[in-house]
Amino acid sequence: MSSVLYYSNNCPHSKRLLAQLAKSSQAKDIHFLCIDRREKHADGGIHIILPTGQRILLPPTVKQVPALMLLHHGNRILQGLKDISNFLKPGQVALNNEATNMNGEPLAFSFSEMGSNLSDNYSYLDMTAEELSAKGDGGLRMRHNYMLINENPTIATPPDTYEP
Asked: CATH number of the domain that 82 lies in?
């Protein structure tokens, strides 16, 4: 967790940001705190009440939602949809480039995909109809990557009497 997002379920900007983060893998680095249930104490501090009943102090620098507290940047607070989106955008672009191999979209076809030397081809086009039939070997020549239904491999497990 490298940041904390303060949001409200009643704020349209918070809803839009949450929808963006739901489509991104960046959400795993963010802790989400809804500020809808809160109370003000006599000392002037505002506490967020979590669903578990636990109370967390709302930083006094959070004046609006959505607000993103950057824990690894000296607890700096970014407030508003525009600032938070601009901060998260380079990370989203990097993740997209990694996922699409710098192409902007998934590759539709690869020459090495169907005939690489790492595994067998996906198809049996080089086999005859007799080889593929039940009377033939039924495609068993490719069995080195697959398990047959009548094979019975064993899995090493501790005995039933084992207690950790």
From this structure: 3.40.30
